[in-house]
Design a protein that fits this description.
Largest sheet: none
Structural class: mainly alpha
Number of helices: 4
Order of helices and strands: HHHH
Length: 96
């Protein structure tokens, strides 16, 4: 648990950057800015083509590459899920 607490600030910062990135790319305009981190982006109206744009934008912004096993609807289900994937990729256990 202490390790998780240490990453709390980092998690908040990453989630905020992802939210701003999606807002800047007009993904779910008027919704993403105030959506709960766990809100289902698909239920809110995100479409498959938008997900591809999100994936590319996140890879560019954070300097990572999503491995094939993370290229799923579930990875991009919510801001929290995207943040979890990013943190796993940048923690040394992921691949870039």
């Amino acid at each position: 648990m202490p390790a998780r607490a240490l990453h709390g600030d980092e998690r908040i910062q990453v989630e905020r950057r992802v939210r701003l990135l999606l807002a800047g790319r007009s993904v779910l305009p008027g919704v993403i800015e105030s959506a709960d981190a766990g809100a289902d982006l698909w239920a809110l109206g995100m479409e498959s083509l938008a997900m591809v744009g999100v994936m590319v934008a996140v890879e560019d912004e954070f300097g990572v590459e999503f491995p094939d096993e993370l290229l799923t609807r579930e990875t991009f289900r919510s801001l929290a899920a995207i943040t979890d994937a990013l943190l796993s990729l940048t923690s040394g256990e992921g691949r870039s």
